[in-house]
Amino acid sequence: MNDALRILGSFIPPDLSPAYLRALAVPVAETIGMAAAGMLVAFAVGVPLAVIIGTRAPGHRLVGTVLASLRAIPDLTLAILAVVLVGLGPGAGVAALALFYTAMIGRVYGSLFLAADAAPLEALRATGASRIPLAAFGLIPLTLADMLSFGTFAFECAMRASVIVGAVGGGGLGTELIGSLNALDYHRALTVVIVLVALVAGVDAFGMLVRRDARLALLLVPLGVIALRLDWPQIFAFRHAVHTFAGMFPPELRAAQIVSLPLLIAQTVLIAVGGTLIGAVLAAPISLIAARRLAPVPVVLVVRRVLDVARAIPEVVFGLILVVSAGIGPLSGAIALGLHSAGVLGKLYAETFENVPDAPIASLAATGARPLAIAAFGFIPLALGPNVVHTLFRLEWNVRAATVVGLIGAGGIGQALYEAQQLFFYKEMLAYILVTWGLVALSDWFGERLRVRMGWHFVAG
Amino acid sequence: MLELTGVRVVYGEGAPPALDEVTLRVHAGECVAIVGPSGGGKTTLLRSINGSVPIAAGTIRVDGVDISTLRGRALRRMRTHLAVIAQQHDLVDRLFVYQNVMAGALGRWSTLRALRFLIAPTAAEIAEAREALEGVGIAEKLREPTRDLSGGQQQRVAIARALVQKPGAILADEPIASVDPELGEQIVALLCGLARSRNIALICSLHQPEIARRYFDRVVALEGGRIA
Ligand SMILES: Nc1ncnc2c1ncn2[C@@H]1O[C@H](COP(=O)(O)OP(=O)(O)OP(=O)(O)O)[C@@H](O)[C@H]1O
Ligand SMILES: [Mg+2]
User: Fold this and answer.
1) Which site from A69, A242, A328, B43 is most exposed, i.e. has the minimal number of CB atoms within 10 Å?
2) What backbone torsions phi and psi does residue A116 show, to the nearest 5 degrees?
3) Residue % of chain A over a pLDDT of 70
4) Ligand 1 pocket, residue B42 CB under 6 Å
């Protein structure tokens, strides 16, 4: 324990020398470029696919199924696949992000379109409008607010993900972070983490501006186009990719590996469940002092910033820091997931508390109840449903994340996958990818069914 | 213009018909009011005319064409001749008024033209929107965000959109149910006046028999799916 604290202490202070900050310019540009290019492709392809889903055009079922199964491959797993297929560097990162976020945008916008106000749409259909004008004059303006909120959220995720795809050789800040950790240069590693937090905060601020004036989103276009042009040759190293891909077939595992498969799956699930529990237990009390209705404003502002930082640091980055300080293993993995989840859940719980309807709270207060009693009899029961949904969503996400932290030695399927890749056992790698895919798809399906059963489908939006 | 013969609509296996033996003829420039109790079949009748509700028996002809033979593109083209006005909330409130008005032209515009219009409308397109809005008396709202308009003004925008469609018929389903009575009467007067002056067949469902008798050429009562 003391040892761990000593190593953690050795991260401080960050290396803020001008020379290092200047050296970071290229990886920062690469990371931003990767996120911008990936999201540009994701919007350009995802929105039309969402229109197909949202207007129930022919083939919409197929599109929905393909997108759902793509989304079940964790982004870092896609990144490994991309690195294997197109080689090291930001091109691989762009390819992985584009694929993952196209699936995300397509699915989510598709369901937004399906839920759009029916009356104006019927009026437009009645004029004889075909699908694309229907989308331009109806679906998109009707859902623009939600599209922008989710779009900026997805961009924020992509920015974080562009760091973690760097960690497996996708270039940018992730590669820089791994490099400095391997060189035991912890001061520089902390600098990278700080830069990452600043980048995510920057995206967040940009998102606020876009929500005020949607046209600002167009800034993404030149940025993404430049990055795409620079990474293009790599993304389309087509023959190499096809050749390597062919070498992955048929996927196969040795007998001993098949025997150990249940253990690996159990480890991954444990990391996910443990991480979610840690996150929820940390988030519950924190969220009470992060909600404007329950705590004084200065406290709320400070706590919210702390939560923002926890959210901005991806699980893998927490994992990398824990691995050098506390050592490797499933517990580190769960703690890494827990710290990030605490940031996410703390914010969501707090927002739920703020959105609790006024009337029941006011009538409780009118009885002369004290604040704690109001919380116990009013806020907590009223917020319970939505918060359970948020937590279940987080659990679903954490099944993905658990395979991802496996890559840095936390165990489970992810670790087996990464080891197979490092040893160039591509057939085994593909087998593990398929197992991961099955596991995530199963957990998504299960979560979906649970929410429908409980009638909580729309609560978490 | 519109010719319904022996029309029957059944929503579900074993359910009583929502429309039964409905025969109705409306010629261009004629204003017909549909009245009757809630559940009488008014909405069903209007929706079946533009092909939104399939019919189980009978025929519906629009300009002599049997609409049950139309599919896909042909059905869409037929719909461009029939403008629909609903009770309320059928505008896209994030768009500007002129954009909602010109949405009436979507059926005859190419996809590219529709998208170009959103980004860069031409002076002629704006002028067409203005003219339609003058017809309903709110030309000054041309460039306002639709959500800033009152309920009655929004209903006028919906009528302007219908005019831009250059329809042969207007199907209006309780267009005044959500505005106050006085305003409602003004809107009915406006609709009937426009239909007569532009030679458009108007079928309009209403809950107020007095207004129906005062402004329309003919009043048809629907009860239990049958013309009473
Ligand atoms: N989509 C539907 N599915 C099943 N039954 C329907 C549907 N729409 C209408 N009905 C039934 O058909 C009958 C006629 O309904 P319709 O909506 O046409 O009446 P209406 O005259 O427009 O009534 P209101 O004045 O309340 O608008 C009713 O019995 C109704 O329950
Ligand atoms: Mg009705």
Assistant:
1) A242
2) -65, 155
3) 96
4) yes
Handedness of CA A351, A356, A362, A363 (dihedral sign): negative
- pLDDT tens digits, one per residue of B148-167: 998 889 989 999 999 999 99
The CB of B44 under 6 Å from ligand 1? The reply is yes
All domains in chain B, ordered by first residue: 1-81+169-228 (3.40.50.300), 91-166 (no CATH)
CB contact under 8 A, A127 and B90: no
Partner residue facing A133 (CB), from B83, B89, B114 = B114
Residue B15 Cα to ligand 1 middle (Å)? 12
User: Which residues line ion ligand 2, judged by CB < 5 Å?
Assistant: B 43
Segments forming the whole domain that contains residue A104: 2-246
Long-range contacts: A142-149, Cβ < 8 Å, 24+?
A: A142/A116, A142/A117, A142/B92, A142/B94, A143/A109, A143/A112, A143/A113, A143/A115, A143/A116, A144/A214, A144/B94, A145/A211, A146/A112, A146/A461, A147/A109, A147/A112, A148/A207, A148/A210, A148/A211, A148/A214, A148/A217, A149/A211
- pTM, whole model, 2 decimals? 0.78
Query: Do the interacting molecules here have an ipTM over 0.85?
Result: no
Minimum-distance CB partner of B80 among A120, A123, A127: A127
